[in-house]
Design a protein that fits this description.
With 312 residues, the chain is α/β, with parallel strands linked by helices. Bound molecules: nicotinamide-adenine-dinucleotide and uridine-5'-diphosphate (UDP). Uridine-5'-diphosphate binds next to helix 5 and strand 8.
Length: 312
Amino acid sequence: MRAVVTGGAGFLGSHLCDKLLAEGWEVLALDSLITGAERNLSHLNANPKFRFEQADVSNPLRIGGEAGYVLHFASPASPPDYLKHPIETMKVGSLGTQNALELALAKNARFMLASTSECYGDPEVSPQPEEYWGHVNPIGPRGVYDEAKRFSEAMTMAYCRYHKVDTRIVRIFNTYGPRMRLNDGRALPNFVFQALSGKPLTIYGDGRQTRSFCYVSDLIEGIYKLMLSGEHLPVNIGNPHEITILEFAERIRKHFNNEPAIVFEALPQDDPKRRCPDIAKAKRILKWEPKVGLEEGLKTTLEYFKQEFAKH
Ligand code: NAD
Ligand code: UDP
């Protein structure tokens, strides 16, 4: 079986390529490299079952040969990235999603959309179950990402219902691990980069906002199980261990001998106050739940970041 992975040179896309190859799939990774990097895939260069093509999936896709699965992971994902590329983010969530769905339709392939907890916006219920419709500001700065993903979900369900494409939607919650970009601006790489540079860690707001961090191997396992399931409606995949950002920064700084200081900066507009997945559905239908605890995941991730920093 051959899978097409859009966004394959990104953080999650590259781990997904590894998993699919390990399960015996052939993989074609497509990526424009707007936020990803070919080096995330360099270990696969000699693998005859793997191919990489640089392509912007917001333009129509022409792919030769068969495809059993199209996994649409292309999109800037870090808030600083999508704020820097607002139009490209909206295009890849709309035109890019339709192009990927058209490819799945043409190849009679299954389709998976990488959606996000941002579909719930700044949620008024916590933890967030899949039935919750969300609380999103369409015209705020984060709207370019949130609304593009909500459009992506609506388009995916339209292709499922109208064209009978066999679709899956995974709502991914904050995930971390090796191959995140050191300068991608998300909380974990920011804190680690600051600590390694001997600078204070920047907490936005009072740090009482919460997130729930999932280690990448757990996430990819959940995604693979969802691929093989028959579920068309969205499924949350994430770690339900909720912590404040201040506590998260404290946990990270303890890994550094110099224990960097913490400074407080302005909270970005519409920054969600709480985020925690309700994973009852994933547990029930996929028999999946995360296994890697925060300390264990942080240890592996920090080792990777220290090596990356040394190359700078
Ligand atoms: P990333 O930025 O590391 O990877 C995204 C990849 O998509 C990059 O390699 C980028 O170059 C590529 N891309 C963007 N626009 C493209 C286009 N028009 N054509 C081709 N390639 C394009 O981010 P990530 O964390 O790996 O996120 C991957 C997917 O998972 C995204 O769709 C994101 O919205 C979703 N997601 C991630 C998280 C998370 O915590 N990492 C959480 C929720 C959702
Ligand atoms: N954050 C922070 N300092 C940073 C980067 C992020 O306090 O240097 C906060 C951010 O405001 C948010 C949380 O950490 O409340 C998670 O941010 P991230 O960018 O990782 O992802 P988000 O969950 O907001 O998409």
